[in-house]
Amino acid sequence: MEAFLVSTGIVALAEMGDKTQLLSLVLAARFRKPWPIVLGIFVATVVNHGLAGAVGAWVTTVLGPQWLRWILGASFIAMAVWMLIPDKLDDDDTGGASPRLGIFGTTVVAFFLAEMGDKTQIATVMLAAQYQAWAAVVAGTTLGMMLANAPVVWLGDRLTRRVPIRVVHLVSALIFAVLGGLALFAPA
């Protein structure tokens, strides 16, 4: 039970202000259908954190912290640029249109990729190694992610009915750019 509770608390706190919370907001703003987004977040988190417990330790032995820092910084900056590129949905402002993979599929893929190398994924690896309780750690880290991200989807859906999607994209791009700069240039 300790592994579950500690994992839940650590990940819920670590997730506050994280890029996946921004992703939750963007998905809520774009699609305005919270249920498939929340379910997609859940599935992506279970798969990602399950794999993190199994193979994450191996990856950290292959890539040193300096490589991880550069990869993370570059990915933040790439995400900032991507946020500035309007797509057809933004131009038409048809919040209800579904993407090719559907809202659920898009959320699963986006969230899974956003979690790669993220601090909560790394925390999952360390917690699984510390407690040697894979199922309890994965369940706890998943609950922590849901506690941090599901409210953003629900509140974001209401908020974006009043805030233009372009404003959400500009603010998100700025935050991703700042995070990228900090990852690349802040003292280690």
Strand and helix map with partners:
Blueprint: H1 2-15, H2 19-31, H3 34-62, H4 65-84, H5 88-92, H6 102-115, H7 119-131, H8 134-159, H9 165-185
Helix pairs in contact: 1-7, 1-8, 2-6, 2-8, 2-9, 3-6, 3-7, 3-8, 4-9, 7-8
Defining traits:
mainly alpha
Termini separation: 34 Å
Low-confidence regions: 88-95
* Main beta sheet: none
Q: How confident is the prediction overall: mean pLDDT? A: 79
Write down how many β-strands occur, each being a DSSP E stretch of 2 or more residues.
Answer: 0
N to C succession of SSEs: HHHHHHHHH
Query: Number of DSSP helices?
Result: 9
Walk me through the structure.
The protein has 188 residues and is mainly α. Helix content is 82%, strand content 0%. It is built from 9 helices and no strands. The protein has helices spanning 2-15, 19-31, 34-62, 65-84, 88-92, 102-115, 119-131, 134-159, 165-185. Helix 2 packs across helix 8, helix 3 (34-62) packs across helix 7 (119-131) and helix 4 packs antiparallel against helix 9. The longest helix is centred in the N-terminal third of the chain and has 29 residues, at 34-62.
Give me a quick take on this structure:
This protein has 188 residues and is mostly helical.
